[in-house]
Amino acid sequence: MTRIIFLLSHLLCFSVIAQAQTTPSKTVLEYVNPFIGTSKMGHTFPGAMAPFGMVQLSPQTNFQPLFKNGKYNPETYEYCAGYQHKDTTIIGFSHTNFSGTGHADLGDILMMPTVGDLNLNPLPTANNPTGFYSTFTHEKESASPGYYQVDLDTYGIKAELTASDRVGFHQYTFPESNNSHIILDLVYNIYNYDAKNVWTSIRVENDSTITGYRQTNGWARDRKVFFAITFSKPFKSYGHKKYDQVAYNGFYRKFNEFENFPEMAGHNLRAYFNFDTKASEKIQVKCALSSVSTAGALLNLKTEIPHWDFQKTKIETQEKWKKELSKIEVETISEADKTTFYTALYHTMLSPIIYEDVNGQYRGLDQNIHTSNGFTNYTIFSLWDTYRALHPLFNLMQPSRNNDMIKSMLAHHDQSVHHMLPIWSHYANENWCMIGYHATSVIADAMAKHVGDFDTNHALTAAINTANTNYFDGLGDYKTYHYVPEDKSSASVSKTLEYAYNDWCIAQMAKQINDTKTEGTFTNRSKNYEHVYDASIGFMRPKLSDGTFKTDFDPLDTHGQGFIEGNAWNYSLYVPHAIEHMIDLRGGKEKFTQHLDSLFTMTLDDKYIEKNEDITRDGIIGNYVHGNEPSHHVPYLYNWTNAPYKTQERVRHILNTMYGPTVEGLCGNDDAGQMSAWYIFSSLGFYPVLPGSQNYAIGSPLVKEATLHFENNKTLKIIVKQQSKKHIYISKVSLNGKVIKDFTLSHDDLIQGGELIFEMSKRPKTH
Which domains does the chain have, with CATH numbers? Predict the structure, then answer.
């Protein structure tokens, strides 16, 4: 009996081993969870799009108007990306979205399939208790790179979405009905208000093709989106409703414009297209976008998806994602870490986006039509966020794209009536959001790392022009006083510090091309941070135009104290180009270490952040705010003290607590990929504290192994020995056999490939 039991157990063991050997491992796509960060503050969305694609096709679950009773409505902030995981309704699928920005726009060309009596209100109102929305459950919803599907329970419709670079591809499986509809909602906007739509136009070209455009005035004050939509099945009838007060309609009054009339125009339109459907009948819809014209949209449609094979487009887009995501192969301590890593990497490729038609034409900042020459044009430059880690990550893993992005920024400068590089630009508009002129950082970083073939002399000229635009955001006063006076401009200290860093970047650009005069001028300007440091209290502090410091000052408060989205404790550590001098100003390494310790361990009362919607408790450790960008370099500053092991502690703690594989897995706005780029760099073991230089600061890697495949066909293998949740300290690090003693890695050394080996320990190395 014992022998039989032994043989059975042996056979069972062999069976389990055999099964384990034959079970296929998960693909990189299966480690991406697009629902991470779709909670209130993450502001990401689970749609279908190609890497860096113009079309970002995503469900919209609800909306709040931008204003209520003439005042800003804070509830609108939850819908920066149109989707909230807590919601149980879907009002349609829009083709443009921002990923994780703290302000918003877009939400263009919303489509919604319905069945039954036609209803053109998206949600219930006082006058209409129903709407065309559908309820849904997360159990019947899924998303992966390039694909999204959900059951619209109200109508018994299965909705599936995929996309190429410029075309959204919908597939709706209908029930049997002689009353099926596809609604085209051109009233809907993200961050909507009554006058946002400037004009909307639709043409019914034939019984299955429509074209049109919409012009909006929002965050981008003159934004045009052209579209071409084609249905796989002819519609039997169509019509629209106009939500305008029409004072004059000319001789269009001759017609019944609202039913089966092939021209529709007005400020706010909702159109509908009617079908008879059989049980389980699929109606497919392709929607192409263009910034140029409806002809451009039609060209994009015919070029990118000339067929009706939904599965073919889905597979092609998934292959694009697989190629991009596989540029970094990782092994991690847990499956959860691997999901978090690849989702973060996915988030870094949602913007900037391609912004040109397949023939290279695009709408420029001057609202004229241009043709890209030798580059692909991009838009969505959230530079105050993304200069810190996203663009440095591109310089490492996407240098050709970053080269094109810089050429796009230079085109922006050339088309700008201000002769300025972009500040925060999207869709042929500058929206002027945030501070500094951080395109200079992106360009300087590329030049320092020898990325790209853009015209460096042109780039330097553009940077100088930008830095000398006196009427921009306190810049003239900055040049006059050598700081931004608080009584002349808000957020004066933040502006002074960021201008000083930007000036250092320009000096580095000038140094690269041997322009010693410009280098000297901007090196001197880069020292202006010294003028807002108050040695008597040890903080950066607002200074008035008479040369005195602001008296009513609280270094803990994030509101009205001379800083933007931060306080003096955080922003006083923002001198990335002169860290050693910053430490000396504070009394040396020991006192500076104590100050950093206090930052991470003190308690920040809610009253100090209650007026700042970008700073929430879930993104704070002590008084360190990881949920917002100004502090992202701070955990690495211990490397410039005698306690670099504390950088390793802080970085690993942030990786483990501020990110995760859940809908709350981002502790703040992803801010167009910056929050995720921090995670990618830090998981690999290093971070670009000073964009514009060759150097990365070493932290504490979270991966067990990683393989980075560079565009130069070289491969870097990262090996982390004794990796575990408790082995967070580095005992030794070496690159290709050379021991690294200063906790600094060089970009040029890394991209030559080889082996980067971290040896980890449970105990800190304190000497």
Answer: 28-317 (2.70.98.10), 327-761 (3.30.2080.10)
